[in-house]
Design brief:
- With 110 residues, the chain is mostly helical.
- The chain contains four helices and no strands.
- The longest helix is centred in the first third of the chain and has 25 residues.
Length: 110
């Protein structure tokens, strides 16, 4: 029994996303990376002296690297989950890395 050379690659070639779907996947990856990077900077530079939702702060300007938005994001994150927010950050990073791997393999988004 013989097979043509392209038999095993037929499914792979038809599964690659094209056009708008591929563009949307790439934009989602870029925005996801930017959001994760901003969240990481906000969490790393969190200070109780920053004016935010649960604290009034002791200074008018936030020391957070993300500015007022970063101070609010870090404050909400730590207020809701405490130091377990780092687990949520790692889950988000793992999800983003999985999406990146799917994009690199040419698998369409689910």
């Amino acid at each position: 029994m013989t097979y043509s050379l392209n038999t095993l690659n037929a499914e792979r070639s038809s599964a690659s996303p094209a056009g708008v779907s591929r563009f949307a996947q790439e934009i989602g990856l870029v925005l996801g990376a930017a959001a994760l990077a901003f969240w990481l900077l906000a969490l790393l530079s969190h200070s109780l002296a920053d004016p935010a939702w649960s604290t009034t702060g002791s200074s008018a300007e936030p020391g957070n690297w993300g500015g007022h938005l970063g101070a609010l994001l870090a404050d909400w994150s730590y207020y809701l989950l405490g130091f377990s927010v780092w687990w949520l950050f790692l889950v988000g990073l793992r999800t983003w890395l999985s999406a990146l791997a799917r994009w690199r393999r040419g698998i369409p988004p689910a």
